[in-house]
Structure formats: C-alpha cells, structure tokens
Amino acid sequence: MSDKKYSSGYRAKRKADSARLAALDVLAQVREEDAYANLVLADTLRDYGVEGRDAAFATELTYGTLRMRGYYDALIERSASRPLKELDPLLLDVLRLGCHQLLNMRVPEHAALAETVDVARQVTSDGPSKLVNAVLRTIQRTAPREWEALIKGQSDSRKATAEITSHPEWVVEAIRDALGDSSFDATEVVEALSANNIPAKVCLAARPTLTTRAQLLRELGDQGSAAQVASTSVIMDAGDPGRVAAVKDGRAGVQDSGSQYVTEVFTSIPLTGSDREWLDLCAGPGGKAALLTGYARSVGARLTANELHKHRARLVAQNLKAFSREDYRIRVGDGRTMAEHDGERGYYDRVLLDAPCSGLGALRRRPEARWRKDPRDLAELNALQWNLLRGAVDCVRTGGLIGYITCSPHLSETRDIVSQAVAELPLELVNLAPQVVDLPDALTTDGCIQLWPHRHGSDAMFLAVLRKK
After folding, report:
1. Rounded CA gap, 267 and 401, in Å?
2. pLDDT range class, residue 239, cuts 50, 70, 90
3. In what order do the strands lie in the sheet with 224-226?
C-alpha cells in the first residue's frame, strides 16, 4: 500500500481478500503517485498473487471504482455527514470500493459489506472500520433512484449531473455545449456522459491492401463481429488481440472504430489534380498512419509519417512494418516548422493533422483521466493546435486537403479553431454531408463530423476537412 501511514506490515497480514487489497493498492498508487491504473494493475495483481477469476474481479473493481468515483463520493459525503476532506484518503478509497461492489457489481450485499469492512480493519483499525460499516449500510438502504432524487434536490443542475454521471463539472459543461443543448440535465447530455462509464470494447482495424474486414472476421471466428461506423472495423468479443495473427504481423491493429472512420472519410474526399503525396503531420504512435499508408497505397500514393519524438517514431515504424518501404517514409521533426525544410513547403496533396488534445472523447478508455484533466490546460493545447494547423497549411499545396482531427468534442478544440482557421488562413471548409449519408447524426451544422460514444459506439472523434485556397 502506498500510504506510509499503513504500509508497515501491510502485505504481510493478508487476512482480507487479496483481490480487494490489490484493487485498493492500485487506487492508492493512482491517487498518490499519479500512476495509470492500466500500467500498474498487472504488477500489483502479481504482487498479491491474484489470478484467474479473482484477477478479473479485481480489474473490474479497480476500473469501475475509478470511473464512478464522483458518484460514490457524493453518496459517501451525504452518508458520512462530513466533508470528504475530513476522511482519511485511504479510508475514502475503501469506501469507494465498497460502493462499487454494492451498486455496480454482482456481489451479494452481505459479502460486499463484510469483505469491505475486513479490508478497512486490516489497513486501519477497528474505529475507522466501524465508520465504513455505518456509511455503507446507509448507502445500501437507499435505492439508486432515491439517491438521484436527493442529489438533484440539493444541487444545481450542473453539479447534480456531474455527481450522478461521475464527471467534473467543467466536463459536463463542455459536453452540453458540444451537443448544443440548453440545459445541463438534458437527456442527451446525460446519455453522452453516461456512455463514458461503459468500458470500450476492443476494436481492430483491418489495414487496407493488407487485409479486409471479411478476412479478419474469418480469422477471428466466433471471437469477432463487425463494428459500427468504419468499414475496416472489427469488434473483438473475446481473447487477447496480441495473439491474433493479423495483429502480430501488422495486417491489423488495435484502433477505435471512430478513429478509423474519420481517417476513411478524409481519404475519400475527391481531390482535383495530383494526389500522390500524403502527410501525417503528428503520426505517433502510428495507428492512423497505418490506415493512411494502406489507403495511399491503393491509389498509388505515398505517405510521409512525421513525428516529433524519436521513441514515438519507432512505434510508427512498428505499425508500418507490414508495408513496403516504398509505400512510406518516416521523418522526425516538429510539424509546426516542417515546411521550413527543403522541399516540404507546399509539397503534399493531403495532410492529416491528428492534433494533440484534451482527450475528452476517450474518457471511457482511461478511468482515472477525467479526474486529472484541468480546463486551464486548454489554452496551451489550443495554441499548439493552432500552430500545428498553420504548419499543415504551409505543407499542403494550393487546392490540397487538410484533415483536422481531435479525440475531443470540446468546442475550443474543434469547431471554434476551425472557424478561426477559415477566417484567418487561406482555407475553405469542405462540407462532409456527401460522405455521411449513412450517418447523418454525425454531421455538425457546419459540415464537420462529430462522433459520440452514445450514438455511434466509438470515441468522440471530430473531423474537419479544409481545402487550401
């Protein structure tokens, strides 16, 4: 356990259930060390000797508790009759684990209570464990609908929606604005936020010219099914993607269906004149670069994959290993100033800019991410996105296309920056309506694409296509 107050002899006792202790340890690492749960969970389970079904239980307990932390905290604070800041952080984590077992796992209530109290007793003492028992019993006695009604009656609509859906208030506001709703508790706002609490399924991308979705489905057998949105997407219903032959040899890769879709749409826009040189301006780690290389190869074009960081450029190379070196080149450099190098200015027919962003569109994939993001970071991100977009304009030829992509629906990262680009740069916005006839609810009022987990089963990807004048 990370908390020094309780660390002495902690792992030696092992009286409480090991799966729950392991989950508690991961929560402490996330809270104290800014660890990522997916990176520390496997080692922690190994340390506690947790395997098989117990490991699956501990995994769901960990990730589910992190996702629903905001909701559980609202219930705990009301049930403990004291501010959360007055509770010991480790004890608060124990209470959160108990809440998840009671409210969102198929654990018998008596077992959830007894086992959580045992964990509290082991890592603290009898006094705090009695508080855990009392708080969880109060939560148990009140039905979820009653809790929601209580929260709504005690808070304004923004705070209530934030607590009920387990998100920071600023994220609730961002999602409301992106959806164009007038109220924080509008049905679709709640649906969009609630979708972030449903774990994303593993999705594979069949890389063009290397394999097809049909071939990938045949390889997977009963472990795979066709995914929504992209024609290259396959949902992996069971098994380890790392063991799939097509993934091992690079014919396929793990990639969200929305990410695949926006790449597919961008490459399908007709282009007048030359269409032989394509650029991925921020290529790491290489999922979109692999799709782009396949699409480019199918029309006789070549991809240049640019990446700022050498270690991420190596990941790009790994993702492109199944293609011929004639199909692509990899360069390391800053996309903001790439056009300053010989031969790069105005050289490319298509430029894809998958811009660094807040990642608000992928919160379902990273359970602790929503609690770490800070709205004050947006100004710096917006400046970076703008400078990269200017870099893309410098690299694309007159009449060429820029695909601007983010994994965020936040207006400052999407439609606002695109509007500014059309107003200040030699660009015109391409209306994507012809490309989304089968997906009309993905089209924004200005002709861009905004995907949503609750509508499309994908991450909330955004795409604007701009033509250089």
Report:
1. 10
2. confident
3. 224-226, 233-236, 202-206, 252-254
Strand, helix or coil for residue 403: strand
Summary mean pLDDT of the chain: 94
Averaged over 262-281, what is the pLDDT? 98
Check whether 3 is labelled as a binding-site residue.
no
Cis peptide before 426 (omega within 30 of 0): no
- DSSP letters, 230-283, are -TTEEEE-SS-GGG-HHHHTTSEEE--HHHHHHHHHHHHS--SS---EEEETT-
Is 285 marked within a binding site?
yes
Residue 286 annotated as binding site: yes
78 vs 139: CA distance, rounded Å: 9
The reply, when asked if residue 283 is annotated as ligand binding, is yes
Q: Global pTM?
A: 0.93
**How far is 127 from 180, CA to CA, in rounded Å?**
49
Q: How far is it, in rounded angstroms, from Cα 71 to Cα 160?
A: 10
Q: Find, among 195, 179, 173, the residue nearest to 378 by Cα.
A: 173
DSSP string, 265-280: HHHHS--SS---EEEE
State the Cα–Cα distance between residues 119 and 111, nearest whole angstrom. Answer: 12
334 annotated ligand-binding residue: yes
pLDDT at res. 1: 55
What local confidence, expressed as pLDDT, does residue 407 receive?
Answer: 98
DSSP conformational letter for 8 = T
**Cβ atoms 294, 210 nearer than 8 A:** yes
Spatial neighbors of 469 by CB under 8 A, at least 6 apart, are 398, 426, 427, 428
Which residue has better confidence, 159 or 126? 159
The answer, yes or no, to whether residue 5 has pLDDT greater than 60, is no
Q: Is 226 among the annotated ligand-binding positions?
A: no
Domains of the chain: 4-144 (1.10.940.10), 156-195 (no CATH), 202-254 (3.30.70.1170), 257-468 (3.40.50.150)
Q: What's the longest Cα–Cα distance across the chain?
A: 77
- Could you give the CA distance from residue 317 to residue 286 in angstroms, rounded to a whole number? 8
307 carries a ligand binding annotation: yes
pLDDT, tens only, 86-101: 999 999 999 999 999 9
Report, as residue numbers or ranges, the catalytic residues: 407
* Secondary structure class of 224 (helix, strand, coil): strand
In the predicted model, is pLDDT for residue 125 greater than 80? no
Residue 288 marked ligand-binding: yes
How high is the pLDDT of residue 76? 98
For 31, 221, 280, the CA distances from 286, given in Å and listed in that order, are 30, 27, 9
**Structure tokens that stand for 368 in this block:** 């602790």
